[in-house]
Amino acid sequence: MASIRTRITASYALAFAGTMFAFSAVVWAERRDVAQQDLRDRAITVADLGIRILRQAGVGNESMTIRTDSLIGRELTTRYKAQLDVLPGYVIIGDATHAVYESPAVRALSEKDSTNLTAAAFSLTVKTDALVDLDDERTQILLVVRFDSLSAPPSVRRVVAGVSTQPLAIAGAQVLFLSFVVAPIILLISAVTAWTLAGRMLQPIDQMVNDVEAISDGRSLHRRIPVEDLGDEIGRLGTTLNAMIGRLETSFAALRRFTADASHELKTPLTVLRADIERAMTTRQGSTDQLVALEEGLQETTRMADLVESLLTLARADEGRFDLHREPVEMEPLVREVVETANILGEAAGILVSVPVLQHVTVLGDRVRLRQLFLNLVTNAIKYTAKGGKVELTLESTDGGAVFTVKDTGIGIAGADLPFIFERFWRVDRVRSRGGERGGVGLGLAISQWIAQAHGGSINVASRLGRGSSFAVTIPALPIADGSRQTTDGG
Ligand code: ADP
Description:
Helix Hairpins; 18% strand; 3 domains; Heat Shock Protein 90; five-stranded mixed β-sheet
């Protein structure tokens, strides 16, 4: 495919050549018409002059104008011939059947041409012209007849004048010269101008392509395309490309971080697992030490399986390959199940779990995923609340939909950390969190947010460091059939 520059130049040249051709055709037609009319006028003028000369004697006055010669037959008298000879062009004057006068130009013609011309002169009527080809002169003669008397017995019946069509050929040659000599030169000049202008206009785009090529090698995503004029199309293209490169940079960085984090998270349990297996192999078969090592190994395997499962969930969600099995889900029984688990976990951690509000509300969603989302929040609340603290769960039916809130009196999250808590592998205290009693990997909230958003909902967080946090999940509700709402206390 040719470059844009070539295509612009070719289109321009083609359009220009078309215009020139049409223009030349119109000029040629116009000039031909004008020249033809001009020739006819000239022939008519000559014929009229001839008539005026003859009228001096009265056209029909045979005794004054015609003499009969035994050798050449009837012809005009010498006096009139001498006067008529000064007329330019081809003049033939005839009686009913013969030519009685031929101008010097006619007389100078060859026998054949002269016969042709005379024959044409006698076949003309006042309303028609005739074009006669002359072999010798290589030209055509335009013939007109002005006087065509049918009344008897005038001796002179027709005055025919003819002019050469040479001027027509000259007009045609001029147009041909314009079309084939001047037009190509103009065309060449305009094509060169179009080529130069297109090159100048496309130069910034060329530069931009080079810049983008240099940037898109993967390591230079921090660089940006220099944009000179923000207002024009090229400036806007540059700005748009810069925004795109910015987004690419962010996602590349996120991808790199994600891969590094995932590898790191998998490496640690693998190292522990290896150590456990080595310990189990070196200790006595069936001893307590061997059992402890195997138990630890099993825990690490479970942890890794959970991590890989979470990564798979997020990867599928990213690809949009994760189908939610949507069905009407009654939230109250679902939350009751979650409360049961919360009670068990809370009891073990010495935390009081209460459910002050539990309303009936139905949503369209995936029961298993919603349960996963609620359990994530509940386990986080218990994980990040110290012994003796409180965790409060509520389910409300509001105008915005079903709202499930988990409120704790735990360690809370600093304002500066809040924007990051839904990012993958993000933890407030990375060092302490991993492997400690809390042991999260930082994927729970990322998955929770994906589940909420996939249901058309959202998660809102309010938290104060050292005072506790509140996570509220809103999921659009299905319209309530009977409109009744019920409130129960639990805990
Ligand atoms: P993790 O597996 O580490 O809990 P999450 O994605 O669930 O990962 O949470 C990300 C981070 O957000 C946690 O490491 C913790 O620092 C903070 N966080 C989440 N929930 C709470 C909470 N209820 N109270 C205080 N901090 C929390």
